[in-house]
Amino acid sequence: MNTLSIRDLCCLFCCPPLPSRIAAKLAFLPPEPTYSLISADNPTPVNSTNDPTAAAAASSSKSLRYTMIFSEKAEWQHSTSDMTKLEPYFVTTSRHNQIACVYVKCTPNPKYYILFSHGNAVDLGQMSSFFIVLGTRLQCNIFSYDYSGYGASQGTASEKNMYADIEATYNSIKQRYHIPEAKIILYGQSIGTVPTIDLASRFNDCCAACVLHSPLTSGMRVAFPETKRTWCCDAFPSIDKIHRIRSIVLIIHGTEDDVIDVSHGFALYNRVHVQHQTDPLWLDGAGHNDIEAHGQYVERLLRLIDIDIPQIRLKKQQEQEPNNQQPQQQQQQSITTPPTLASTLIIPASTTNKAN
């Protein structure tokens, strides 16, 4: 991606020279769908972007219940009983696409609810095994969704659709499941950091924290590493949005990332408002697709959940109630360090070796 020929450049910028088309060529790699959704009321599988009628009908009723049926490419690594932890559903975006979402119920008493925007070249079928492992380790339940044009989601992949996709899913978490903003953690991986940053930058106090896993500053800066400014044809300009986020921001990046260089993580961290910075995790020797295999990964997320977020809340409470010292001191004493975890996540094979 960092070495484009003259022919590649002409094809990229001249056919036609629209930022949305450039973004699509640079970024989006929808895989062949690895799952389908089956409803007891409608046995016809919904598994393709070529079936808008079925998707529209699916999203029109909140009472419909679906089951995920995985293909071999999904590499589902759990028992059949674990499939009951998956609650798929459809939502309609502001751009009139019906997109597939899934609620992964990992624990009956979750600490938080993570809205996970996955990376490129994968869909919900390939990510579901990973979600169960991650949510169980963190004692959090997970929501995720497929971008327009991915998996069972309708439409085509584009930057604008991506922003509408995450907003529709986020609204469903609050309206369908009645989960408050203070219990939501936004999590973006690779290209998934783009809609995550956009949503968090547009809505104040929309989440307890924002996790950016292998983030990119902008599309042009990935394709052309010497780029120092945002051009009019640039896509995914996260570097110009991240300073508006008003929740705690955790950045995780591998030092040997050959897809999105770690310098992108450094640049974004330096643009986070100082009041919302927390210690980043620069994983020495990690690449783009193996961060989850390092024990420090889960340890840092647990620290965010059990220490960083409570401390930020306590600090805000102290600023709002400076005279109420005794209850605050008791709260501070209740914040304890979680035990160190030396083990690593077992990552589904389908989530590795995927660019962006």
Compose a concise summary of this entry.
The protein is an alpha/beta fold and 356 residues long.
Structure, explained:
With 356 residues, the protein is α/β, with parallel strands linked by helices. The chain has helices spanning 6-14, 19-27, 52-59, 124-138, 159-175, 193-202, 219-223, 262-271, 295-320, 325-334; strands at 35-39, 66-70, 86-92, 98-104, 113-117, 141-145, 184-189, 209-213, 248-254, 281-283. The longest helix is centred in the C-terminal third of the chain and has 26 residues, at 295-320. Helix 5 (159-175) packs across helix 6 and helix 9 runs antiparallel to helix 10. The protein is globular and about 50 Å long. Residues 1-6 and 337-343 have low confidence and may be disordered. The protein has one domain (29-351): Alpha/Beta hydrolase fold, catalytic domain (Rossmann fold, 3-Layer(aba) Sandwich). An eight-stranded mixed beta sheet has the order 3-4-6-5-7-8-9-10, sandwiched between helices. A two-stranded antiparallel sheet has the order 1-2.
Secondary-structure blueprint of this entry?
Elements: H1 6-14, H2 19-27, E1 35-39, H3 52-59, E2 66-70, E3 86-92, E4 98-104, E5 113-117, H4 124-138, E6 141-145, H5 159-175, E7 184-189, H6 193-202, E8 209-213, H7 219-223, E9 248-254, H8 262-271, E10 281-283, H9 295-320, H10 325-334
Parallel strand pairs: 5-6, 5-7, 7-8, 8-9, 9-10
Antiparallel strand pairs: 1-2, 3-4, 4-6
Helix pairs in contact: 5-6, 9-10
Keywords: Cell membrane, Hydrolase, Lipoprotein, Membrane, Palmitate
Domain Serine aminopeptidase S33: 109-219
Organism: Adineta steineri
